[in-house]
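PROTEIN SPECIFICATION:
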Amino acid sequence: RRIDGIEATPDYVTPLQEYLYDNIYLGDAVEVIDRLAQYDVVFMADVLEHFDKDAGQTLLDKLYEHAEQSLILTFPQNCESREGTRSNPFEAHRSRWSRKDFSRFPQVGYTVIEGTAAVVALTKPPNRTPAMSPSFAGRDRCGWKRVAGKALVGALGRHNASRLVSAIFGESIRLRS
């Protein structure tokens, strides 16, 4: 198992990330991804809205090509535009995304949690798109974490998804499908 991350600025790299990730690559994800290998699953949480639409579409294409099985995304559903901060211009919100923005991909799972967060799974054939619903019935997880967990289970299988999430959170977590 290899878990790599991309961070736009070194100021945002924390000791926890240094512990969890095998590698942290610094820079613009649109450029950095070109230097990286293939991954079974690519997970991008709350990043897409920080790119303008054209750069975001380019990033989606590149991430999809680097994912052997699935690309899983989360982002704010009704993202309001905002400027970056003086210390980090990468915090600017530059785009809004909806279900139709992913229609060009062959297999799309899309759901919205609490009307605020979208979770998308772009799964490559012959893998099945995970069932995604805004269900809050999960015992251990709810909201977007539950949906993202279900997407990981669908892409990696229960055992591998649980191992990945347990490694990320530093505690044993069992995901159910």
User: Anything to note?
Assistant: The beta strands are 4-7, 23-26, 39-45, 67-76, 108-113, 117-123. The first helix runs from residue 15 to 20. The two ends are 21 Å apart (CA to CA).
